[in-house]
Amino acid sequence: MRIAFYAPLKSPDHPVPSGDRLMARQLVRALEEGGNRVTLASSLRTFHATPETVLPGLEEAVQAERERLSRLWEQNGPPDLWFCYHSYYKAPDLIGPDLCRRFGLPYVTAEASYSHRRNLGCWARHQDLLEEMVGLAGVNLCFTERDRLGLAQAVPGARLARIAPFIDTSPFIERPPAPRPGRLVTVAMMRPGDKMSSYVALAEALSLIADLDWSLAIVGDGPERAAVEALFSGFAPGRIEWLGELSRGEVAEVLSGGSVFVWPGHGEAYGLAYLEAQAAGLPVVAEQVAGVPEVVEHGRTGLLVAPGDPRAFADAIASLLADEPRRLLLSKAARRFVSEERSQPVMARRLSEVLVPALEYPL
Predict the structure, then answer these.
(1) Entry's PANTHER family (predicted)?
(2) What sign results for the dihedral spanned by CA atoms 91, 354, 265, 344?
(3) Which of 334, 4, 315 has the alpha carbon at shortest distance from 177?
(4) Residue range(s) occupied by CATH 3.40.50.2000 in the chain
(5) Backbone phi, then psi, for 308, in 5-degree steps?
């Protein structure tokens, strides 16, 4: 198929790394691996931080993109479908619906989400559009059960399909694990909100096992770096290693030398870093919160503890540090889990299964 791909929150070619950008890139590669010809329809970002946000020139930019793509498709022929990744109340797809109607194309969403609590200001208008397009879409791909249930409740009768979060495993699987005893690793951006909340929880948990023999490597950077460093300032010098932002290959190298991946995961939609860590052979310690259980299987690939319980989080870490046979068992299971169930080739086949029927529902 010829697929026009669009990610209104963060384009695959956006300069700032994030989980959204990574998943957008992986979807493109998985679609291409399935034999499809994928083109990036537009890089226009429609992110509205607040319901009162007014993005200067957005309306004109949207219209210009519609006209540009219309001319392009009239000259070269339209694609077979429009694929929109991660449209929600803050980042609506203002381009695809109009073009799909004009050219009679099927519309497909991936990781669309709806929240009744967000029907405020411009967000309410965005959700009205989202609700309409979810109902018309040939298929809506849901990465989590929470998103699937949310769409099913908001738009009864919508065509929904589950597709599990996945990664390109090659940078992580190709490196054999070489864990350093007691080496903990976390990979996360340093920004306000849920990320900062997770750093607070992690520092509190580690303070409860400060008498044990462990070190922590932190991969990540961002506007809250000084605040994050302050959280861990009470630990002995050299115990925390600040590695900053690294390339994917460098992250894989760090993970290959780790024993346990530790990250509470507050507000995580699912967390691709968990899959990367498991592919590298690290069992995970996280909270059983948000979308984390979608990517970490408690007792099989890691340990999930109750949210907001630093003692339970600390005890889970301590248990793996003290029980190498169990840690090794989880490590091997984690690598198998990601390789056999959450790899790009597996999801390329799944995408082919769900996209072909979507062609029967042009707008």
Answers:
(1) SULFOQUINOVOSYL TRANSFERASE SQD2
(2) negative
(3) 334
(4) 2-166+343-358, 170-341
(5) 70, 25
Assign domain 2-166+343-358 to a CATH class: alpha beta
Full-model pTM: 0.85
Distances in Å between the Cα of 103 and the Cα atoms of 66, 322, 362, 363 are 12, 62, 9, 8
Question: Which CATH architecture describes the domain 170-341?
Answer: 3-Layer(aba) Sandwich (3.40)
Sign of the Cα pseudo-torsion (263, 264, 268, 274, in order)? positive
Return the residue matching tokens 């090794």: 328
Question: What is the strand order of the sheet 260-262 is part of?
Answer: 240-244, 215-219, 183-187, 260-262, 284-287, 302-305
**Angle (nearest 5°) at CA 349 between 346 and 354:** 125
Q: Are strands 37-42 and 2-6 parallel, antiparallel or unpaired?
A: parallel
Strands 302-305 and 107-110: unpaired
